[in-house]
Amino acid sequence: MLFMLIVKASKNSEAGNLPSDELMEAMTAYNKELVCAGVRVAAKGLHPSSNGIRISFPVSGENPVISEGPFTESNDLIAGFILIDVSTKEEAIKWAMRMPDPQGHGEGQIELRQVFE
Question: How far apart are CA 81 and CA 31, in angstroms?
């Protein structure tokens, strides 16, 4: 079963601030655990939404609308993701619970979603 651990953006990540050295070390250790357990498929951080483009489809059948970032709704934005392949939802939850606060300073939030296969 594929699950995506979606790291939600924060004001800090949207400002383009990199994590502290301690958080980078903790995330590196966490990712090594995932790799050693054979469950990590992919893991990447994303640039701030100021570098992003949104394509929306406001009217069915008409041309899409392109909007350039930054996007202001930071609670809806994604700062990164980890894709894991596990046996059960419970196992995915256990791995998600082991992730360090991905934003540090109590700002982190992870959304866990199963991927259609």
Answer: 11
* Helices 21-36 and 89-98, packing angle to 10 deg: 150
Q: Tell which CATH architecture fits domain 2-114.
A: 2-Layer Sandwich (3.30)
Backbone angles phi, psi at 64, to 5 degrees: -70, 160
Look up the pTM and report it.
0.89
Domain spans in the chain, listed from the N-terminal domain onward: 2-114
Q: How many other CB atoms are there within 10 angstroms of residue 110's CB atom?
A: 18
Is the predicted pLDDT of residue 106 greater than 90, yes or no?
A: no
Render pLDDT for 78-88 as a digit per residue (tens, 0 to 9).
999 999 999 99
